[in-house]
Amino acid sequence: MMESMDAARIIGYLKGKSILITGSTGFLGKILVEKILRVQPHVHKMYLLVRAIDAPSAKQRVQQEVIGTELFGLLRDKYGEGFDLFIGEKIVALAGDITGEDLGLDAPTLHDLAKHMDVIVNIAATTNFYERYDVSLDVNVMGVKHLCQFAKQCAKLKMLMHVSTAYVSGDSAEVIVEKPLKPGSSLREGVHLDIDAELRLVADAKKDLLLIGGDPAEQKKAMKELGLQRARHHGWSNSYVFTKAMGEMLLGQLRGDDMPVVIMRPSVITSVRADPVPGWIQGTRTIDTLIIGYAKQSISCFLGDLSVVVDCIPGDMVVNAMLAAMVAHSEEKQAVPVYQATSSLRNPVTYGVLYRSGGRHFEEHPRVRDDGQVIPNRHMLFFSSIPRFRLYMVLAFKLPLEMLHVANILLCGLFDKLYNDYSRKYKFVMHLVDVYGPFAFFRGCFDDTNLETLRSTMAMKSPEDEMFNFDPKSIDWDDYFYRTHIPGVLKYVCK
């Protein structure tokens, strides 16, 4: 039975703690760093591991990519001229790399960190669906291994929080429960997943590509295709979710019986809902392609079914769930708790709600061209299946492209540049459909019983407690999309 949870308990837990965070320059990492500093200024230190050649470069990167963002405005206002001094006392930038042995740190630094570390939060990941297989394995799998090896050296460690993704469970159309992945299990029946074999395979492939030589761009493409091929061989749709699944499996194998671990699996993470800056977002989420395309009127059709539920959750609510779970399971060394920070079970929302909210927003706040003319809003065509979309693309683009190709031959290459440009764009769109298509029609429903149980322990009796809200039932999706998320995407992404 979990103890009751409230803001005071979470804030009190963070006091005096030394916390190592990977992935702090990413969207979720920034929200976490800011939140801890804002609610508990007496945290001892936060060590931010970032890729950099030396300590000054690491410090500069943290300053520019983390502390210097608009997200830290409330803290900047609170401390005024003392802000830099406060940050200097609480934030330590470490030049390292989770893909390297000992996290890329020298022995004295590593030893000193291990003596004092209370909490490790692993958010670092490559989230590219079409990443090079070697890069995905290095970050999403080997990074977990190296972090586990470091964690075992931390005598005071109370928690290792690992952020994964809800989609590690594959493209199931059923209710997907919160349970650890079994090492060696594959989503394809009769196929065994051997992580060491995958590492050897990619190493051999890299050697072969180096021996063959040739265009570096073609070698890069070959490694990307290898990742896609291996993911689909085992039943996952892309190398991102495949390697994140392997990372979870490896974590389960390496933690042993004495390491307190929690796995947090968010679905699609969207802009900040409440604090510190509603609408703040970094990078383009899959659902934001629709918003940006509509805003720029750059796409006339979209692959997706408006009746399909899109599972998304605001970034600040994910961080709130992480902090609550961290406190609830601190120093627990039994089975690994898995939490799915999702919305499809408790408060489902469809693509149709997003589309209608966008239409409403752009009708009331029309976008204007540089010359002052209003950009007219056009309705998009939506295709409820990949075969229908492919047929449309063939009729609307492929056939005219072939006609242009014939004309180009007859006219001795007069349209070479035009044909090559359109051909490249057509292939790019069809490639996107291949890689991202499965997500457009994902019909699974994520069970969040574990997280609901944790939520039930939250007191929610004061404004401070509301600062740690992670209940998806409290979200009015239409209002959130219209007033917060869409304006945030337009301000921070669609500049």
UniProtKB/TrEMBL annotation:
Thioester reductase (TE) domain location: 21-322
Source species, domain of life: Eukaryota
Record keywords, A-Z: Lipid biosynthesis, Lipid metabolism, NADP, Oxidoreductase
Spans traversing the lipid bilayer: none
Keyword ATP-binding: no
Function field: Catalyzes the reduction of fatty acyl-CoA to fatty alcohols.
Family listed: Belongs to the fatty acyl-CoA reductase family.
Stated name of the protein: Fatty acyl-CoA reductase
Organism: Urochloa decumbens
